[in-house]
Amino acid sequence: MWIDPITGNETDDGILVLTCPNAFSCRRVQEHYGALIHQTILGHGGRDCRFVAKNGSKTESDKPLAVNGTQMAIPELASKPTAGRFLHKDFTFDQFIVGRSNDFAYSASLSMASRRRSDQSCLFLMSKTGLGKSHLAQAIGHHIIQEYPHERVYYVTAEDFSNEMVASFRNDCFDQFKGKYRRQCDVLLLEDVHCLGGKDRTQQELASTLDSLYDAGKKIIFSSCYRPTEIPRLNDKLRSRFSYGLVSTIEPPDFKTRVRILNQKAKAKKVAIPRDVAHYLAGELTEDIRQLESGVIQVAAKSSLLGMPIDNQLAESVIRNIICSRKAITVDVIKKMVCRHYNVSLKDLVSRSRKQAIVRPRQMAIFLSRRYTDAPLQAIGKAFNRYHATALHSINAIEKGVHKSAALRKQLDYLTEKLDRGDF
User: Fold this and answer.
1) pTM value?
2) DSSP codes of every residue in 329-347
3) Which of 101, 147, 339, 395 lies at a C-alpha separation of 20 to 30 Å from 136?
4) What average pLDDT does range 190-219 have in this prediction?
């Protein structure tokens, strides 16, 4: 983003002129990459150099680059890896709260990032949504960028990888795509690998890419809501690659960990939450970390807008809006609610019918059962007379469908809102 557009010409008096496309780019390069560029030129040229950065359209930036000193720490920025998505600036090891539910995953991630074990080249992080697998994956990226700044870290989702591969075919640059991931990548952070189910061509290409990275001793971190053995419509070769390294599960945080997470979120948002209120919130908001953060935000907002003190009464009024009463929500409750909404019979819902008018409600009911109950996947599948692989396919179908269909997204929002309110 910043280095590629720069052009350079050496003048007669030994000054290397760097031309940037605009004044902002010029300042950015000067402040953050000046020292690195200077050191690189010294390494290749064997003599000292002075730099002058010029704006491509103006001459007012015709000033020497400040090249003395060391390179600024990249993690202080909203770090942009070599390819893919931005790393979240707060998703670092320092910001991760460790408890009994995630201590093994944290230790495995830190070990890989710090290179404590040279034989550890692959890590698979598995948890439900909102429990910290993305945080740990990006923390590895942050740590490597800080400690090994010359390594190329790619952070992408499986969907990004698939879309990029398709685009490379259409634009006749597939060799460039393969070269980027197989030869120009030192650390690959690949999120949501369960989204690859059914994408045969993408699976084949990814498996070949992973083989190249394994052979070259590169680091690979996967994340998913499911274990490698549970991902539907995944070829055996890729399933084997996902299971090659360490598979680490992150469980929901216990009470003490939830209290610590609440206090950290409150501190980050500069909100003073009394100890008894923090304990009350931690006792009620048990689903995931995002729900805890939502509790902090809403308590702080209501206190500020209404000028009320943060106490248990205020916290209780907020909890009513966000808490999900899991004890009252069962697979049978969800089945009945879905049948009423789609106007289908319970008999049809669990039948072998493949009519779209039946399949979509069945998929929705399975998806909601997975999200709102603690029933294992096998039990959910059995409740609908399906194998667990078919249940996984249904969950995948809804997850992908809501991104393509506004109507399906509205249906899901309506049903989840009813469950959140306890209106079932």
Assistant:
1) 0.60
2) --HHHHHHHHHHHHT--HH
3) 395
4) 88
